[in-house]
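Dear Dr. H.,

I hope your travels went smoothly. While you were away I took the liberty of generating a structure for the chain from your last submission, since the lab meeting agenda had it listed for discussion. I wanted you to have the full record in hand beforehand rather than looking at slides cold. The sequence, exactly as received, is reproduced here:
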Amino acid sequence: MNSLARPEIESLSGLGKTVLQPGLIWACRTSGAQTELIDGGEPPTDDCAFRWLHLNLADQRSLSWLERSVSLPPAILRMFISPEAEQRGRIEGGYVALILHDFERDFDWLDTGRIGALHIVAGPGIMLTGRFHPLHTADVIRERIVTGGAIADSGAALLLVLDALSDTFQGRTLRITQGLIAVEDELLSDRASPDSRELITMRRLCTQLHRTMAAMRTLLLRLESEQALPPSLLPSIAHASQRLHMLDQDIGAAQTQLRLLRDELDLQAAQRTNRNIYFLSVMTALLMPATLVTGFFGMNTGGMPLAQGVNGTSFAALIALLSSVATYFALRQMGFVRE
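The corresponding predicted structure, in token form, is as follows:
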């Protein structure tokens, strides 16, 4: 049997090494006062003060690498790799695992409106984040790592994640508020009525944000009250829960404003309908006497008055007109015709 050539051996060795690596999207490591960002490639080892790995959990290599290279409590590991997207949290053995909602993104479209799940594990000297689908906030976190200072520990990393999530929700809340202001200005300027589909879209986004932030804040408040929560993570979770509470209040104000706009649009629509019905009712009342006159003179019976002579039609038209005029003054006298 011929031995393999050296390039083939190196190729197989490189392939085996690639198989053993996780599906790493990006990572960073902190040594001293400097945080270094790593895009793909090999994950940082545990010989640094702090390391952060953002993994593609849809890649099976990530699951095998986690079981082989990171010592996590079994319950924490199961929750981190779980495909379930429900928001929840767990504390065990000094590690905190979280599944928080975030907005998904596509490669060519940043704002899909779909809700995805960001998986988080924070522990001594390590931070793990992962996702099954591309997420908006993960890109924001990477940019802040590049432009920000050193990340000293998992508490600072968790604060960065929760702040980025809050900023994502705040940006969408601000867009909804600005849209409502534009709709209100259009409504008050007596221009064409706003498109009701736009208001329906805003209502859907408000409901989506409210449900997401309310559930996230409830989860963080529960973790904040847990005795097993590591003290280094408590300030980050407390800060995030307070900020989510303020953002949820903004969403509540936007929902109230949206309901008022909806009521105003319904009132305007009802007023237009009432005006149209009023106009048709008055026209019907004015034309009824004339219709009665023309129906009477249109009967094909003997002894019809004004049937003889050349001015019969003119007299009949005059009677129809006078009957409509008399009806108009009668309706006005009774208050059915507005001034």
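Two observations you may find useful: Helices lie at 6-20, 60-69, 74-81, 136-147, 154-188, 196-224, 234-297, 312-334. Residues 234-297 form the longest helix (64 residues).

With kind regards,
E. W.
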